[in-house]
Amino acid sequence: SFTPRVFSGIQPTNHLQLGNYLGAVKRFVQMQDEGMETIYCIVDLHAITASFQEPAKLRHATRELAAAYIASGLDPAKSILFNQSQVPQHTELGWIFNCVARMGWMNRMTQFKDKAGKNAEKASLGLYAYPSLMAADILAYHATHVPVGEDQKQHVELTRDIAAKFNHDYGVEFFPETQPIIEGAATRVMSLRDGTKKMSKSDPSDASRINLTDDADTIAKKIRKAKTDPEPLPETTDGLADRPEARNLVNIYAALAGTTRDAVIAEYGGAQFGTFKPALAELAVEKLAPISTEMSRLMDDPAEIDRILGEGAERAANVAEPIIAKTYDIVGF
Ligand code: ADP
Ligand code: NA
C-alpha cells in the first residue's frame, strides 16, 4: 500500500480563469489545509505542446501562475510548489511511459481531438504524447490522489492504465493506482458565451471567461453579459437540467460561496437574472479581488517567486529521484 500523496498541475498559458480556480486551485488549497502531503506543479513542459509560446511570455505566465497559487492560499512551506521543467525526472519517466502506453490508448484521448482540431497532421508530437508525460508527472511522486476538473478524468484513467501495464509487464507492484478527485459544484465551469463549451484560458474570446487578473468592473460586466435564457431561475434544482447557462451560473455561485446548488436555488429560485447576475457579480468580486490584489503584490518581486520555485524544485527532485532510480533499475538500465 502507498502513502497518500496529492499531485496536480496547471499549464502556464495565459491568465488563470475561474474554472481553473474553482475546479482545481481551490481544491488544491483545501487538500493542503486538510494536512495531506501535497505537491503542486506549474507544468511548463505541457505549455508548449499546443502552440508556440513566446519565451518571455512563458516565463511571465510561469511566475504569474506561481503568484496565483500562492495568492489563493497555497503555502510553499506546506506544499511543494515548483516548475516541471526544473525537475528532469518528469521527462525521464515520460520517455519510459511513451514505451508503455499504446497508440490505441492515445488515439482515444478526447482532449487531443479537441485541441488538435480538424487538422491533426499539423499537431505536435508533444500534444499527442502529453497524457503520457502527465502520467509521469503524477507517478514520479507515486501520487495516489489527483485533484482535477472533469476534463482531466480521462487522462488520470490513462495514468492508471500505464501504471497497471508497467506493473504487469515487469512483474512488480511499483506504481500506485491513482484516484482522480473530482468534487464540488464546479468540476466543469462552462464558457460564459456558450453553455456547451468549457471555460478555458485558451479560448480566443476573453468574454467567455473570468480571469483571476480581471478587475471588479470587468468581472461585473462579463457576468452581466453572460449568455442566459429568458426564464427566471427554477424553483427546484431539477429545473436546471436542460438549462446549461443557468446551471453554470448557479454552479459558479455555489462554488464561490462554498455551498451547494440546492442552497443557491433555495435562496434564488424564481429570481430573474436581473437580480441573480448582480448578486453573482458581487460574490465573485468579493472572492476574487483579494486574490488578484495579492497576485500583483507578489508579481512585484519576481526574484522571490523564482526563489520559491527553485526551492520547490529541489524538494520535488528529492522525492522523485529515488523513484526514478528504482524505475531504471526495474527496467534494466
Ligand atoms: P485550461 O483548459 O484553462 O488551459 P488546464 O488544461 O491548464 O486549463 O487545466 C488546469 C486545471 O484546471 C485542470 O485540473 C483542469 O481540469 C481544470 N480546469 C480547466 N478548465 C476547467 C473548467 N472550465 N472547469 C473546471 N475545471 C477546469
Ligand atoms: Na485543460
From TrEMBL:
<feature type="binding site">
    <location>
        <begin position="149"/>
        <end position="151"/>
    </location>
    <ligand>
        <name>ATP</name>
    </ligand>
</feature>
<keyword id="KW-0436">Ligase</keyword>
<protein>
    <recommendedName>
        <fullName>Tryptophan--tRNA ligase</fullName>
        <ecNumber>6.1.1.2</ecNumber>
    </recommendedName>
</protein>
<feature type="binding site">
    <location>
        <begin position="19"/>
        <end position="20"/>
    </location>
    <ligand>
        <name>ATP</name>
    </ligand>
</feature>
<comment type="subunit">
    <text>Homodimer.</text>
</comment>
<dbReference type="GO" id="GO:0005829">
    <property type="term" value="C:cytosol"/>
</dbReference>
<feature type="binding site">
    <location>
        <position position="137"/>
    </location>
    <ligand>
        <name>L-tryptophan</name>
    </ligand>
</feature>
<dbReference type="InterPro" id="IPR014729">
    <property type="entry name" value="Rossmann-like_a/b/a_fold"/>
</dbReference>
<dbReference type="Pfam" id="PF00579">
    <property type="entry name" value="tRNA-synt_1b"/>
</dbReference>
<feature type="binding site">
    <location>
        <position position="189"/>
    </location>
    <ligand>
        <name>ATP</name>
    </ligand>
</feature>
<dbReference type="InterPro" id="IPR002305">
    <property type="entry name" value="aa-tRNA-synth_Ic"/>
</dbReference>
<keyword id="KW-0963">Cytoplasm</keyword>
<keyword id="KW-0547">Nucleotide-binding</keyword>
<dbReference type="GO" id="GO:0004830">
    <property type="term" value="F:tryptophan-tRNA ligase activity"/>
</dbReference>
<feature type="binding site">
    <location>
        <begin position="11"/>
        <end position="13"/>
    </location>
    <ligand>
        <name>ATP</name>
    </ligand>
</feature>
<keyword id="KW-0648">Protein biosynthesis</keyword>
<comment type="similarity">
    <text>Belongs to the class-I aminoacyl-tRNA synthetase family.</text>
</comment>
<dbReference type="InterPro" id="IPR002306">
    <property type="entry name" value="Trp-tRNA-ligase"/>
</dbReference>
<dbReference type="GO" id="GO:0006436">
    <property type="term" value="P:tryptophanyl-tRNA aminoacylation"/>
</dbReference>
<comment type="function">
    <text>Catalyzes the attachment of tryptophan to tRNA(Trp).</text>
</comment>
<keyword id="KW-0067">ATP-binding</keyword>
<dbReference type="InterPro" id="IPR024109">
    <property type="entry name" value="Trp-tRNA-ligase_bac-type"/>
</dbReference>
<keyword id="KW-0030">Aminoacyl-tRNA synthetase</keyword>
<feature type="short sequence motif" description="'KMSKS' region">
    <location>
        <begin position="198"/>
        <end position="202"/>
    </location>
</feature>
<dbReference type="InterPro" id="IPR050203">
    <property type="entry name" value="Trp-tRNA_synthetase"/>
</dbReference>
<feature type="binding site">
    <location>
        <begin position="198"/>
        <end position="202"/>
    </location>
    <ligand>
        <name>ATP</name>
    </ligand>
</feature>
<dbReference type="GO" id="GO:0005524">
    <property type="term" value="F:ATP binding"/>
</dbReference>
